[in-house]
Design a protein that fits this description.
Layout: H1 2-14, E1 24-25, E2 30-36, H2 45-50, E3 55-62, E4 66-67, H3 71-80, E5 84-90, H4 96-109, E6 119-122, H5 131-149, E7 153-158, H6 159-164, H7 168-173, E8 176-179, E9 193-194, E10 196-203, E11 212-218, E12 241-245, H8 252-258, H9 263-270, E13 283-287, E14 302-306, H10 313-319, H11 324-330, E15 344-348
Parallel strand pairs: 1-9, 2-3, 3-5, 4-12, 5-6, 6-7, 7-8, 8-10
Antiparallel strand pairs: 2-11, 3-4, 10-11, 12-13, 14-15
Helix pairs in contact: 4-5, 10-11
């Protein structure tokens, strides 16, 4: 009888549902999603929407001075095409004071926008910080973002950090957007449920060149309050950098002119040894210093479009319901039959 009981117990152990050892969805209502940054370049959000994507999380900022160069373009175009939008900040703080400063910078960058989803903290590079320091920095950042914006927040984390680094104070007070690739259900963590699940970094979506992170989101990641974030500090008052992806035909001198800086500043900021040698796809930090040029000014009724292979002004005019003459006048184009790959055009929307 004793052996029989032991056998039954062993079998019962083997058939325990996988969900017992997993982090599961917070609800059954699932939205298809993705998260993007400047690495994706220009995105055709009309095609993305038609492909069934409902939610896009957009990188807005990093550290205390870097604004993602495609942040406003992604936000405006996603909204125009009816996607629900969230923002994330890549946190690099090494103490609570820096965490608060970065929270304030994040809030200033996303001021005057109307997000649909909780504001996300992406804290994944810890250096020599202790677990206690990591958690204290996280709480400082999240609470400051909440206080300034009046919006709910969420923690982005891989399964290892969510199980071994981020502790119960975080899991008890903030929801989770978890990352684990190649699995149907994320492993067990300090959180019982996820509101976001990044399941691959090699997703393919029509309208995007190359890979993109793909996600599933529950309805609980959506904000109850989707009103505009009140202006809390002007991001142009920060001495900040933007990130530029080098296009074919670019030169440092041309990039410097476009962003109102100098070749020497670019060389120093990026530790470039040969200023005559840059490569397509290379990521270059560009100082803005609170005085953006026209190529960095975004308004509610404009987008900035980066010309892709095969584009023509007539095709762009048809796509955005404007005229060739309007685009030409707005961009000082003399020959309407001549535009260049990588050129950035202002287009009325």
């Amino acid at each position: 009888m004793k052996l029989k009981v032991c056998f039954i117990a062993a079998v019962a152990t083997l058939i325990i549902p996988l969900s017992v050892f997993a982090t599961t969805a917070s609800s059954n209502q699932i939205y298809e999603g993705m998260d993007v940054s400047n690495w994706q370049g220009y995105i055709d959000y009309n095609r993305v929407k038609n492909a069934g994507i409902d939610i896009v999380y957009i990188k807005s900022s990093q550290g205390n001075n870097i604004i993602d160069s495609y942040f406003k373009i992604n936000y405006n175009n996603a909204k125009i095409n009816g996607l629900k939008v969230g923002f994330y900040h890549f946190l690099t703080a090494t103490n609570e004071r820096e965490a608060i400063e970065q929270a304030e910078f994040f809030a200033s960058v996303i001021s005057n926008t109307s997000p649909d989803c909780k504001l996300a903290m992406d804290f994944e590079v810890f250096g020599d910080l202790s677990v206690e320091e990591i958690n204290d920095i996280s709480v400082a950042f999240l609470e400051r973002v909440k206080a300034i914006t009046g919006k709910e927040v969420i923690v982005y984390s891989d399964t290892y950090a969510a199980a071994n680094i981020f502790g119960v104070e975080l899991s008890n007070n903030y929801p989770l957007w978890i990352a684990e690739y190649g699995v149907e259900v994320p492993r067990q963590t300090n959180w019982e449920y996820w509101e976001g699940f990044q399941y691959t970094n090699q997703g393919e979506v029509p309208g995007i060149n190359g890979y993109v992170d793909r996600d599933k989101f529950t309805n609980e990641i959506l904000l109850n309050d989707t009103t505009q974030i009140v202006q809390n500090g002007d991001p142009n008052n920060y001495n900040h950098d933007t990130e530029y992806i080098v296009q074919s035909g670019n030169t440092l001198s041309g990039i410097a002119r476009r962003y109102g800086t100098t070749v020497n500043e670019l060389v120093i900021l990026n530790r470039i040894q040969n200023p005559n040698l840059i490569f397509p796809g290379q990521q270059i930090k560009v100082p803005i210093n609170g005085n953006p040029t026209n190529s960095q000014i975004y308004t509610a009724n404009h987008i900035i479009y980066t010309v892709q292979p095969g584009n023509t002004l007539s095709e762009l005019a048809l796509r955005y319901r404007t005229s060739v003459q309007n685009i030409a006048a707005l961009n000082n184009i003399r020959n309407v039959n001549l535009i260049y790959i990588g050129e950035r055009l202002r287009i009325n929307t």
